[in-house]
Here is the input.
Amino acid sequence: QVQLVESGGGLVQAGGSLRLSCAASGRTFSRYTLGWFRQAPGKEREFVAAIGWSGRSTTYADSVKGRFTISRDNAENTVYLQMNSLKPEDTAVYYCAADQGVVLATSSRVYDYWGQGTQVTVSS
Here is the structure.
């Protein structure tokens, strides 16, 4: 089992950057695929990015490709989401999630463990 705690959200102007962190408990962190999702008010939760066990494999939603970068530090039990060139439409609560599978899943239903979320607000 793993527990996830996100941090790093906040208010930023359009074009700015933020780095989200997600700290995990558990001795088997390196055996989890990790993902970031987001949910804007009135919308369904959507996939943002995922990273494989070793960190070599990643996948992104088209809406963030080229602007966001997911990475992980297995020694620190932490996954990151570097967000650059932020847009007002990136405003949402961002969640990290963990899955014991090896596939870089984009469906939230696949992920077993979730953090509480961190708010990101991008002003125009």
